[in-house]
Write a structure and sequence with these properties.
- The protein is an alpha+beta fold.
- It has helices spanning 8-11, 40-57, and strands spanning 17-22, 27-31, 37-39.
- Helix content is 35%, strand content 23%.
- The longest helix is centred in the C-terminal third of the chain and has 18 residues, at 40-57.
- It binds zinc ion (ZN).
């Protein structure tokens, strides 16, 4: 019996996505892990954010 809405989606970092539909200048991707669908631009932003965080965490940057 499920009484709570799923909250896993917010914790998913969407490591694997596939393109589900494409419009003139927009592309929609679906996360194969949690099934969430979002704009690929949005996904790119998330990816960049993640990379920026990783770079910031680097101990020695030249
Ligand atoms: Zn996901």
């Amino acid at each position: 019996m499920r009484s709570r809405p799923k909250t896993m989606a917010s914790a998913c970092k969407h490591p694997k996505v596939r393109v589900v539909s494409r419009h003139d200048d927009a592309e929609f991707v679906e996360c194969t892990e949690c099934g969430e669908v979002f704009d690929s631009d949005e996904f790119r932003d998330m990816e960049l954010e993640e990379k920026a965080r990783q770079l910031a965490a680097e101990p020695d940057g030249e």
